[in-house]
């Protein structure tokens, strides 16, 4: 199997595996305070981008995964497309012109997801792509070796 076929097979195996792991490890907000709990977890997907396997969030709310994984500093929230912010706290409806948000701690769930699947991914890479990569890196792969024509005869001088 050539590199291209091996890489395609690798992506087909690893993409869904890492997507599932990210979905399982992503935090799910409280349904009392979030009208769409689980949106981040359900937004995980994989794709091939010009030969690069990418796995991550396609959350329609924007870069939520970055806010979750990196955390946020304290900040003010003000309405952008309305006269007031509208949300619920403990079942009480709230309208206000601003909120002083205390910030959030980082939740590196993407690191946990990778660590949970690293050994499996490395084995899959070895099984699908590894041999073709190693053969491509071998400078002697096209050489016909004769007597005395070895890359290293053990003498230490490279002859």
Question: What would your notes on this structure say?
Answer:
The structure is a single chain. The protein is an alpha+beta fold and 159 residues long. It has 2 domains: 3-71 and 106-133, no CATH class; 74-102, no CATH class. 40% of the residues lie in helices and 18% in strands. It contains 4 helices and 6 strands; from the N terminus they run H-H-E-E-H-E-E-E-E-H. The chain has helices at 3-25, 39-42, 64-70, 109-137, and strands spanning 44-49, 52-57, 75-77, 85-89, 92-96, 99-101. A two-stranded antiparallel ribbon has the order 1-2. The chain starts with a helix and ends in a 22-residue tail after the last helix. The relative contact order is 0.16. The mean pLDDT is 85.
Key structural traits:
single chain; 159 residues; alpha+beta; two-stranded antiparallel sheet; 40% helix
What's the arrangement of secondary structure elements?
Blueprint: H1 3-25, H2 39-42, E1 44-49, E2 52-57, H3 64-70, E3 75-77, E4 85-89, E5 92-96, E6 99-101, H4 109-137
Antiparallel strand pairs: 1-2, 3-6, 4-5
Helix pairs in contact: 1-4
Order of the strands making up the biggest sheet: 1-2
The coarse silhouette is: elongated
Our estimate of the beta-strand percent is: 15-25%
- Helix fraction, binned, reads 25-40%
Q: Helical region count? A: 4
Q: Report the uncertain regions.
A: none
